[in-house]
Amino acid sequence: MNKLHKIIVGLGILSLLLTASAWAQPAAPGDGKGMMRKGGMAIQYDPNNLETVQGELTQVQKSPGRSQGVHLHVKTDKETVIAILGPASFLEQQKMDFAVGDKVEVTGSRIKHPKNAIILAGEVKKGDQVVKLRDEKGMPLWRRSLKKR
Questions:
Q1: Rounded to whole angstroms, how far apart are CA atoms 104 and 56?
Q2: Of 47, 48, 73, which is closest to residue 61 (Cα–Cα)?
Q3: Tens of pLDDT along 67-91?
Q4: pTM for the full model?
Q5: With respect to CATH, is domain 35-147 assigned 2.40.50.140?
């Protein structure tokens, strides 16, 4: 019985260790710290490194998934920038929609990407309408909006 008791205690300790290591995994991007994941790459909004681009929309995309993120392809004088805005549901609440040919101004944090010019948007303007997407620290405002539901 002593040997069986040791095996049971050993298995109990092993299961506790495995459970603890699973709980200790780092939080995934998109955990409310201004981070998100794009194509397997973690990207972070940097409120200390903002830039503004202006141009015409050449493409409007909604990414698949539960939150259906909105991505705008903005053709500027120098390049085409992919602006990652946020969930379509948040933009609908703000009464802002986009169509190819719209003129927009996007302010946000540029992401280093080997193939594309990408900006995580903090604010987007279309005509007289302005929608703020992130606070001054870079935290997504849609998280607050979705929690209120």
A1: 6
A2: 73
A3: 688 999 999 999 999 999 999 888 8
A4: 0.69
A5: yes
